[in-house]
Write a structure and sequence with these properties.
Elements lengths: L6 E6 L7 H14 L3 E5 L2 H7 L2 E3 L27 H14 L3 E6 L1 H11 L4 E6 L15 H22 L2 E6 L6 H10 L3 E3 L7 H14 L5 E6 L5 H12 L3 E5 L11 H19 L5 E5 L4 E5 H6 L6 H10 L4
Length: 326
C-alpha cells in the first residue's frame, strides 16, 4: 500500500528514558523500508520551533540501541505552549515538508502533539518515561531499566546497612506516581514504601514495621520513598526520632534515567516505534501507541490523556504481606 505521508519527523521530549534510542532507530528504519523520508528533530519541540532538524538515514541510527539517553537530545519547551510557538513549529513543518511526527515522551509530550495536530500536522505519541505513569498503556519505555538501576543501587546500600545495623531511606523518582517506588520496594525486600497514591501515616506504615522487625531480631531496614509522596529526609527524621536507629538517606536522582537499556526497553521501544510509523503511513493522526502486556494497539490522544492510572493495589497489598518487618 502506498504510504499516506512522504516525509515524517521524530522527536524526543521531556525527561529522557533508556530505550528512546531504540524507538528512534525503529522509526527511522521502518520509514526507510516504506519509502518515507525521516527527519530527526533536535531538542524536542524546542527544535521544531527553532528549525533544528536533520535528515536521518538507516546508517545514522546504527549501534544506538545499547545507548541510554537520546541521540537527538530532549528538552522541555515553554514556548511551545504558546500560540506563537505552535504556529512557528507548524510553519517549520510545512517549509520542511514534514507531514507527520512521531513524538516520543510522556503525557506533556502528548499534550504538545495534540496541540500541534490542530495546525494540520499528523502526530503519533510513543510513551517513554521511567515513571510508567501513563494510564493508556501498561508499559512505558525506560521503566524496566530505571527499576533495575534503582534495585542495583539499593542492593549495594543494603550490604553496608546490614554491616552497620542501620536503616536506609532511599528516595526514588516517579514524578507524582509510586509505580517505580513500589516495584523497587518489592524487588529489594523493603521494610516499607511511601507512595503518593496512599495517604500514609508514617508511624503506622514505616515505624511500626521497623519496630516489629526489631522485636524479631532484625537489625537493618530499607524504606523506599517515592519523590511524589515525601522526601527521604523527612521520613528519615521520623524514623530516627521514633526508633533511635542510625538512619541514612540516599536520593538516587537522575542516575535512574541513565544507563544501558535492558532487553525489555529495547524490544518494546522498537515495537512502539514500528507501530507509530505504520499509523502515520496509513493516514492516522492524534494517536498514542499503547501496550497491554501482550498486544500493541493505539487510541486517540485526548482519550489517553483523560485516563487515570492508579497504583496496582495487589502489588501494594503484597508488599504489606511480605515486608521485611514481618
Ligand atoms: O518524568 C521523568 C522524571 O525523571 C521524573 O521521575 C522526575 O520527577 C522528573 O523527570 C525530573 O525532571 P528533570 O529532568 O527536570 O529533573
Amino acid at each position: 500500500m502506498e504510504p499516506k505521508v512522504r516525509r515524517i519527523g521524530v522527536l524526543t521530549s521531556g525527561g529522557d528514558a533508556p530505550g528512546m534510542n531504540a524507538a528512534i532507530r525503529a522509526v527511522v528504519r521502518t520509514s526507510h523500508s516504506m519509502g518515507i523520508e525521516c527527519v530527526g528533530i533536535k531538542r524536542g519541540y524546542h527544535g521544531l520551533i527553532a528549525g533544528e532538524m536533520t535528515p536521518m538515514t538507516p546508517n545514522d541510527v546504527s549501534g544506538i540501541t545499547s545507548q541510554g539517553g537520546t541521540i537527538i537530545y530532549t528538552a522541555r519547551s515553554p514556548e511551545f505552549t504558546t500560540p506563537e510557538g505552535l504556529k512557528r513549529a507548524a510553519d517549520n513543518c510545512r517549509y520542511s515538508g514534514i507531514q507527520g511526527i512521531v513524538c516520543i515522551g510522556g503525557d506533556g509530550t502528548f499534550r504538545g502533539a495534540q496541540d500541534l495536530s490542530k495546525y494540520g500536522v499528523a502526530v503519533v505519541g510513543v510513551p517513554a518515561t521511567i515513571d510508567n505513569d501513563i494510564a493508556c498503556t501498561s508499559y512505558t519505555i525506560g521503566y524496566d531499566t530505571a527499576c533495575n538501576t534503582a534495585i542495583d543501587a539499593v542492593d549495594k546500600l543494603n550490604d553496608t546497612m546490614r554491616s552497620h545495623e542501620r536503616c536506609s531511606v532511599v528516595e526514588v523518582m516517579g514524578h507524582r506516581a509510586g509505580h517505580l517506588a513500589l516495584a523497587v520496594a518489592i524487588s529489594v525486600g523493603a521494610t516499607a514504601v511511601v507512595v503518593p497514591e496512599k495517604d500514609i501515616d508514617l508511624i503506622e506504615s514505616v515505624v511500626r514495621p521497623i519496630r516489629e522487625g526489631r522485636l524479631r531480631g532484625r537489625t537493618n531496614y530499607t524504606i523506599i520513598v517515592a519523590e511524589g509522596a515525601s522526601s527521604a529526609d523527612k521520613v528519615a527524621e521520623v524514623v530516627r526520632t521514633e526508633t533511635g536507629i542510625d538512619t541514612r538517606v540516599t536520593v538516587l536522582g537522575h542516575v535512574q534515567r541513565g544507563g544501558r537499556p535492558q532487553s525489555r526497553d529495547r524490544v518494546v521501544a522498537s515495537q512502539m516505534g514500528y507501530e507509530a510509523v505504520k499509523i502515520l503511513a496509513s493516514g492516522g493522526t492524534n494517536r498514542v501507541v499503547c501496550y497491554d502486556g501482550s498486544t500493541f494497539f493505539n487510541m486517540p490522544i485526548d482519550e489517553a490523556l483523560s485516563m487515570k492510572k492508579g497504583l496496582d493495589e495487589e502489588m501494594y497489598n503484597l508488599l504489606q504481606s511480605i515486608h521485611s518487618g514481618v
